[in-house]
Amino acid sequence: MNLNRFPRVRLTHNPTPLHPMTRLSNHLGGPEIWIKRDDCTGLATGGNKTRKLEFLVGEALEQGADILVTQGAVQSNHARQTVAAACLHGMKCHILLERRVPDHEENYEQTGNVLLNKMFGATIEYRPAGLDMNAEAQEACRKLEQEGAKPYFIPGGGSNEVGALGYVECALELNAQINQQSLVFDRLVHATGSTGTQAGLVAGLEGIHAGLPVLGICVRNPRQKQIEAVHGLVSKTTHKLGIPDIDIDRVDADDGYVGEGYGIPNEGTLEAIHLLAKTEGILLDPVYSGKGMAGLIDHVRKGTFSKNEKILFLHTGGSTALFAYEKMLLDA
Fold first, then answer.
1. Selected catalytic residue, list 25, 76, 159, 319
2. How far apart are CA 83 and CA 116, in angstroms?
3. Is the separation of the CB atoms in 295 and 189 below 8 Å?
4. Is the per-residue pLDDT at 30 higher than 90?
5. 25-53 burial code (b ≥16 CB/10 A, e <16)
6. Does the pLDDT at position 193 exceed 90?
7. Residue-wise pLDDT tens digits, 301-332
8. What is the number of alpha carbons within 13 Å of residue 236 lying toward its C-beta?
9. Closest by alpha carbon to 332, among 322, 319, 317?
């Protein structure tokens, strides 16, 4: 599976660490839990979008673009990494931020990722909740073209068949680490949202017959909708790679930890954040990895994951957003 034939820039500090979480495993009294630290990818405090941006920015530069245009929720980790990648390659960046999270804290639109977006020099527009944000961003591209710019559109989360190549690459990297350390994992768990991370992992792991099932913990969509969306992108990604398509039954998701909605932590999310901080010194985020870990912890407690299993958690990053949830975290 040769990824070198696709345009690419180097943004990621890889391979990212793979190590056991012994204190967490002992605390839960369940399976042996390991972590793949894609919060340590390096760009602008790290996160999973950096891998996707290697291929997206590579294509943008090949097409002669001078400005990246993307969208996300107000505290979007993807937006922060996109504007940082633009800085690194001498490009401008325009971001559309959706006011998706209701009843947020007072400084929600000034701190965390928003602060870093401004420091990196992004131009920002806000939109109310419920719009087709990719369509809004594409319209922004058309306006920029009329002004003489050369925009390159990146969908929310960097989740298309170009961005998903970043997690095909991650699957290959992970498989090499597993072989080097003589490990066998029973499943990989991570937070799934815009679909690119899970689609890339499934395409990569299934494409090399790694035998490692992937469970996505939903942060927004109902289970079946998420499975269908992920599989749709898996199919586009395998087509781009020129490898056989993958059956939808190889895509799995659990929507039991979404709570009240996207970006709204529930009791389990907050417990997971505090537990990882106090047992492993690892910071999760309130939107993605906190919900993903909450799902993993609950599956251990329910016995869905047996004590004899070895579970791998992919940390997708996002701790910068913690600052936008200060009161909620301190009150938990």
1. 76
2. 9
3. yes
4. no
5. beebebbbbbbbbbbbbebbbbbbbbbbb
6. yes
7. 999 999 999 999 999 999 999 999 999 999 98
8. 16
9. 322
